[in-house]
Amino acid sequence: MTTQSQPKPHKPAPEILTALKGWKTHSGFWLKAAVAIGLTSGLLLIVQAWLLANVVNAVVFAEASLADVMPSLWGLLALFLLRAGLAWASEQAAFHAAVQVKLAIRAQLYQKVQQLGSAWLTGERSGDLLNTLSDGVEALEAYYARYIPAMSLMALVPLAILVFVLANDWLSAVVMLVTAPLIPLFMILIGKGTEKRNQQQWQQLARMSAHFLDVIQGLTTLKLFNASRSEAQVVAQISDQYRQSTMSVLRVAFLSSFALEFFATVSIAIIAVLIGFRLFWGEMDFLYGFFVLLLAPEFYLPLRNMGTQYHARMAAIGAAEKMVEVLNTPNSPHPSLPPQGGKEQDVHPSSVLLPSPLAGEGLGMGGMFGVTISNISFTYPDARTALSNLSLDIHPNETLAIVGASGAGKTTLINLLMGFLQPQSGQILIGDTPLTAIAPEIWRKHLAWLPQKPQLFPGTVADNIRLGNPTATLTQVQAAAEQAYAAEFIVKLPQGYDTLIGEAGQGLSGGQVQRIALARAFLKDAPLVILDEATANLDRASETLVQAGVERLAQGRTLVMIAHRLRTVQTADRIVVLDQGTVSAIGTHAELLESSPLYQQMQAAYGGEA
């Protein structure tokens, strides 16, 4: 997952904006509630301004006493408290709307990543993807919690205020109509330049996150080769570039805020001067002039708020670019099967009748089925052919080993068998059913995968073993560890099965990590087990224990294994020799030593260590 991917072109802004607009539906009624509450508060503000203008007018010009204006003062107090409560409720509704969107988008991203599988992940950088799933999704909160409500209130509240201003002072209304469009106009003009900067900033943050994660994961290697100092300089350089990018965005943000405040202040000043002169000349009643003057700042406030929150929009566009790219990545096709009755309709793969071994839940060691690989071909996007018209039968309850030189197509074949990739031609049959007709989640319930470098997660030893069966009891976990030859070292750990281990199995040796992964496979009890060079990079003692566990795991199951060390496959029922994406030979170890020149070369070249 840490392979550096090639730079990808910018997504067009309309595609990102369409996605952001579509994601708004995940907010449910919360977003509408936030806007409705904000509009109600704006209408109450007009009532508040009218009461205040009446109180001031009564005290100054009508010489009213405190008792005379007390009802209005109590009304003002009630309005203050009510508007404060509405402001809090609007914030809460907007927050819940943003949370709903974030939960939905994060769930979609996780589901999409699972659908794309590990083959797609090998072309992505872990740090970039993690930044998208964490900080990128979090950056959407300000967009949905602040910018979207501000956009709606910008149109509704000033319009409501304008109606009352027009009824009391047409000249001030004209000034508002003329000056109000200047604020969003200059905001958009300035924001256009900031939009690209925000996208570049998010891309730099993604690259920086990916690079930092790569550095941390390879810290031991950097120390061994005395390259940590030079790498620290690279990190400092990348950090400084991100700092410059951030400051560039902030400069434009401050400039736009200044422009918005300037135009709003000048517009309010114009209205105040016009009202002041007319009051001085006696052309306007104080009550209406003061009422309009109280409303003038509130007329421009939603426009200024929208300008302030406009940067949330640009940040969301930058963050959503990678999300749109991930969500729009096409899945491997799963064609629909013809429905009963001949009617044309889509059939979900999970509704397809599966072979009897796959149809039942709780399938154990007795559920054997054959796999037929028929004339499959696969070519990678870089035009590199991995497999070419390959055919192979995997018999039930057999141990099948796959060997070959690097690039022969071993890993590609395994990825196709697990459903991570789909062949461009040919098909894989599970019993008599095409693999493409079986839902991936159903198919993967019936196979166990033991890779060369298993992934362990922070948590207890028991929790990591339970990944094979989350509902397993401690007794079942212990039994699986016994079968995998892992119980001996687990019981010697400080807290036994409750011992906490670090990221990627920190604190355990490679052989111990591999045996915990092997215990997962025992606990899952899947009928088909796939091993991808499970004993590579292990010392002889660890390899012996893992190999013994694998042989025990193979009993009563179909086992397909890739191996570099030929001595680990000598006991296999059959060995398949791949050469440039095709099957070169099939047979037992003894048969291939006599009949396969390529197998003989591998044996001679590596002395059994291939």
TrEMBL record:
Q: Which domain of life is it from?
A: Bacteria
Q: What is its main location?
A: membrane
Q: Membrane-spanning regions, if any?
A: 29-52, 58-82, 147-167, 173-191, 252-280, 286-303
Xref: Pfam families: ABC_membrane, ABC_tran
The reply on keyword ATP-binding is: yes
| Chain ranges of the ABC transmembrane type-1 domain | 33-315
Ordered alphabetically, the record's keywords are:
ATP-binding, Cell membrane, Membrane, Nucleotide-binding, Transmembrane, Transmembrane helix, Transport
Which residue ranges does the record assign to the ABC transporter domain?
A: 371-605
- Protein name in the entry: ATP-binding cassette, subfamily C, CydD
| GO BP, sorted A to Z | cysteine transport
Species of origin reads: Thiothrix caldifontis
Give the bilayer topology: Multi-pass membrane protein
- Region described as Disordered: spans on this chain: 328-348
Gene3D superfamilies cross-referenced by the UniProt entry:
ABC transporter type 1, transmembrane domain, P-loop containing nucleotide triphosphate hydrolases
Q: Where in the cell is it found?
A: Cell membrane
GO function terms (MF aspect) = ABC-type transporter activity; ATP binding; ATP hydrolysis activity
Q: Which GO terms describe its cellular component?
A: plasma membrane
The record, for InterPro entries, names: AAA+_ATPase, ABC1_TM_dom, ABC1_TM_sf, ABC_transporter-like_ATP-bd, ABC_transptr_CydD, P-loop_NTPase, Type_1_exporter
